[in-house]
Design goal:
Elements lengths: L3 H25 L9 E5 L2 H9 L9 E6 L6 E3 L6 E3 L4 E6 L2 E5 L4 E3 L5 E3 L7 E2 L2 E2 L9 E2 L4 E4 L2 E5 L2 E3 L7 E2 L4 E3 L8 E2 L5 E3 L1 E3 L5 H38 L1
């Protein structure tokens, strides 16, 4: 039979370790355009206490999932005509190997085939008519409404899509998300606000992450002391039992 206090301490170490991994990932991507920070969600102590009292399950903290913060990052001016930022809610839609992907990383370039593609993954940006096709070398202008023009010719209109349940989206790399099993209903935004010549920065606050790292370090040390103290107590109890 496992000792419940050791179980709590061990689970605490494991959940803190998961939080630290997530924290380091956020710090690494603090300067990645369009990156959305995330936090590990842990089952709260009151719920665990209630479960223990009702003998439903062991009273140990558990990682339940990941919460993504979809708030907008600050806008950075680049001056590049194919760099785009969204001044409204929603996502750019890209064509990925699994189907449609959704991102707020607006770094796009024109590839050799004349398609407007994402910097990460080189996935085609989708317009109302599919992948946006541009004559290589042609000057283009992208309006706030998403219209892509070459001179007086309108080539296409960039799609911007949103979801009522953003937390249900599955992250691919923190900047690109996908609709798992197509279970979510995308909502097309008819009047987006697209800002050419800008990109959206990561919404990670590096100062906040440093403070969180200090806090997690203290929690980890506390959990370690719980495990060490309990092991010492159990060892002494076993030794006393042997003497008797």
């Amino acid at each position: 039979m496992t000792d419940s206090i050791l179980g709590i301490g061990q689970s605490g170490l494991e959940t803190t370790d998961e939080k630290v991994k997530g924290l380091m990932n956020k710090m690494v991507h603090a300067e990645t355009p369009g990156f959305k920070s995330s936090d590990v969600t842990v089952r709260s102590f009151p719920l665990e206490l209630e479960s223990a009292q009702r003998r439903i399950q062991a009273e140990t903290p558990k990682v339940e999932g990941t919460f993504y913060n979809h708030t907008q990052g600050s806008l950075i001016r680049t001056g590049k005509s194919t760099d785009l930022a969204l001044g409204s809610e929603g996502f750019f839609v890209i064509l990925a190997p699994w189907g449609e992907g959704y991102t707020r990383d607006g770094r796009f370039t024109v590839n050799a085939e004349g398609q407007l593609v994402s910097t990460v993954g080189t996935y085609p940006l989708l317009g109302q008519n599919g992948p946006i096709q541009i004559t290589p070398g042609a000057e283009i202008e992208i309006g706030q409404d998403g219209e892509v023009r070459s001179g007086a010719t309108v080539l296409d209109r960039i799609r911007v899509t949103n979801f009522a349940e953003k937390q249900e989206l599955e992250s691919v790399n923190g900047t690109i998300f996908k609709n798992p099993d197509q279970k979510l209903a995308p909502v097309e935004i008819d009047s987006p606000r697209i800002i050419a010549g800008y990109i959206e920065a990561s919404n990670v606050n590096i100062v906040d992450q440093m403070m969180e790292l200090i806090y997690l370090s203290r929690i980890y040390n506390l959990d370690t002391k719980i495990v060490q103290t309990r092991e010492t107590t159990l060892t002494r109890a076993l030794d006393m039992g042997k003497v008797q």
